[in-house]
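To the team - PXL complex, inputs and output below.
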Amino acid sequence: MQKRILAAHDISCVGKCSLTVALPVLSAVGLECSVLPTAVLSTHTGGFTGYTFRDLTEDVGPILDHWATLDLKVDAIYTGYLGSFEQLRLVERMFEMYPDALKFTDPVMADNGKLYAAFDRSFVKGMAALCEKADYIIPNLTEATLMLGEPYVDSGYDEGYIRDMLKKLCAMGPSRAVLTGVSLEPGKLGAMGYDSGTDRFASCFREKIDGYYHGTGDVFGSSLLAAIMGGADMEKGIKTAVDFTVNSLIRTKNAGTDIRYGVEFEREIPNLIAAVGTV
Ligand code: PXL
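Output:
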């Protein structure tokens, strides 16, 4: 039977990120991607001004009420950018509705040491509480330090620091955590993860592509979830997602695309399908 993911993220109409990345990436490997749109924006909030923002919090409760009347089989819940503090509670309710689903949470709220435009410190606490209930979390270094109440360090750390942070993230509740945007040597960037069930770390690093490309975390997260649903262990999942992300970034850079408009991942999809196999 086809596996179903429920993806709770915003729709940014222009500037590829969140649902406009999760839908094509998860669908391409044969997964059904059902959506819970958290907000509709004319563009994402990074690098643009004057964007519209329609918070869909009022619709989320009734959507979940309706789903509760259906006999939905849900294999994974993928949460990302949430439109309001209240939605954190609603997502927890969705977690409770589908106890057997893999709860895969990207605590989207910050990057480069800074919270995104729509969020404040109280949201960080709420997101940390949601992560406690998830099975698999994929924060970047900024989000991880915010949730752990530690100062943000953007360079000069070592592998021990990252391993320690991964263990602390798993101690919050999830059995697996992957940190993105990790750099242990100049010119290299990648991700490192920890599986507390097997007590094993996994990582993959590639050449650092200069420039801050919006939506990169969503390209990574969607491809990691695709690989996991295809049966990959953490090591293979991280490698698949880092390769998909970096190869897409190289295409974007070579095309000279404005970095705000997102990553050119579409033409890398055949390689992702080859890596993941049939889900
Ligand atoms: O890619 C993360 C993201 C998702 N959705 C919206 C955003 C951002 C990052 O800025 O603004 C609306």
